[in-house]
Design a protein that fits this description.
Elements lengths: L1 E6 L14 H21 L4 E6 L4 H4 L5 E4 L4 H6 L6 E4 L8 H9 L4 E5 L5 E6 L11 H11 L4 E3 L3 H4 L5 H10 L4 H8 L2 E4 L5 E4 L4
Length: 208
């Protein structure tokens, strides 16, 4: 089993820019990547490559896996590295854990897809020849591509695998469900707290 994890460090998570500075967003992205890598390791996978979409020496120094730099479009980055028995996992899944990943890897099918909550493809397991097409509702596109190729598609439906982090509401899910992850600890460190009410919400306490 090979695992590819594409990663963008420079100015990531723009939809959080009203709530986090660029530096904070970059640190958040690093911690989420580390949480994903821990889940992959806990699942027993050793062949892991992080594909940096910009040259970032500072992130390379803290990773204990193979790292490559490829600044092309995401589809080209992944398609040039695909082979059978390859999984592609996005880097912003801090709720992911080894148990969830083992179940994902055991799922039958030529192509196994784990959808995100907004129509993306958070994880993909490819057992036969395939070409990815990310961006703009990639989950449905990947189903269509696979079926047009006569491939058997399986859907891995998991809240923990489906919770990619893009909005403040997503940050709330991290503190609710994975407060001891590296991502959860970082969010608490920079002042985020849960207000427990009828509808739990997230607040940020700014230290003077």
């Amino acid at each position: 089993m090979n695992v590819l994890i594409p990663f963008k460090l420079v100015n990531p998570k723009s939809r959080l820019s009203l709530f986090l500075s660029r530096e904070e967003r970059e640190k958040l992205s690093q911690f989420m990547l580390l949480d994903v890598l821990k889940a992959v390791s806990d699942a027993g996978v050793e062949n892991v490559r992080v594909i940096l979409q910009s040259n970032a020496e500072k992130i390379e120094k803290i990773l204990d896996v193979d790292v490559e730099v490829d600044e092309r479009d995401l589809d080209d980055v992944i398609n040039d590295r695909l082979s059978r028995n390859t999984a592609v996992i996005v880097s912003d899944l801090p709720l992911l854990n080894g148990e969830i990943l083992r179940k994902f890897f055991e799922k039958k099918g030529d192509i196994v897809l784990a959808p995100g909550r907004r129509g993306g493809t958070n994880m993909m397991l490819i057992r036969k020849e395939f070409r990815v097409s990310y961006h703009y509702g990639s989950f449905m596109k990947h189903i269509s591509i696979a079926r047009s190729m006569g491939l058997k598609v399986s859907i891995f439906d998991s809240f923990f695998a489906g919770c990619d982090i893009d909005t403040p509401d997503d940050l709330l899910e991290v503190l609710l469900h994975s407060p001891e992850s590296k991502t959860g600890k970082y969010l608490r460190e920079i002042g985020f707290r849960i207000v427990l009410s009828k509808n739990p919400c997230l607040v940020r306490v700014i230290k003077a």
